[in-house]
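Notes from the 1:1 (GR / supervisor)

We went over the backlog. Supervisor wanted to see one worked example end to end before approving the batch request, so GR pasted a single chain during the call. The sequence is below; no edits were made to it. Supervisor asked that the structure be written out right there so they could see what the output format looks like.
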Amino acid sequence: MSAMSVDAYFNPDFSLYKKIIFFLITLAVLSVAILIIAGVEKLFVKEKTKELRDEVYKDRLNDQTQRLFEMIISGTSVLLFSCSYVVSNHIYTLVSTGAAPAGSRYIKLFVEGWSEGKDFILLLLICMSCVINSILDKFIIPLSRLSKEEKATMRMLGMFYVIIILIYLNYIGDESQYGPVMMYYFGLMVGRFVYFDASFMDFVTALKNVFLNLPFLLLTLTITGLLSLLGFRLEYFLERNYYIVGIFYTHLFLLVAIFLVFWCYKLFFMPKKRPRSAEKQN
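Structure output shown during the call:
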């Protein structure tokens, strides 16, 4: 991809009609994922009376569904940083090598800033992704049933989730360079496990929580993998573009689908009940 225009990152043939079709497909895939969670949770409910079974089942289903939502929201926030880095570095490379004209004064200022303070900009992007994550799961899609520890676990898995995607993109030969992004998030993940005042039991607990939630990582990888593959096969996303841009588009559609599912359930089906107070992860 040689053009530096923003239009180069969009597919002009991805019409509104095709966007609606892809959104409906995304909604269907997300619904299947929720049905899978519902089926698995049904197996773990062993209460004696039907009334108690139904109540426990609904609570467990809400908890696990919100973990899936947090996983996708966290992955999207992390991917936003990764995609921003790739696009920014691409623009810088084109301008600095003379493959594209500097254009406006803002592009020149960006190239100078990227050259002299890329590490600071990357740190700023990481902070922005954390803020966006908090805005999404506290205000836009308030996942109130999850404790702080549960959200922290899913966010850490979100980092690992994006690292897996970046490793795969490097493996298939995408021309982008994802090394710096992966190193940043590897560092954040290690810091989450081992911080300056952490005890051995803190480390074991964090590791246990990650292990218990690995099925959500695998389920999210399956969802985004299928949708991204479909998007490229149907030529909704551009293969001549960076693959990570198409994958990020997939996550945006997933966010809209989660928003719709969450608020439809909350407004029309969810019983009026206080949020879960238990802090322990199941």
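Supervisor's comment: The chain is about 75% helix and 0% strand.
Batch request approved.
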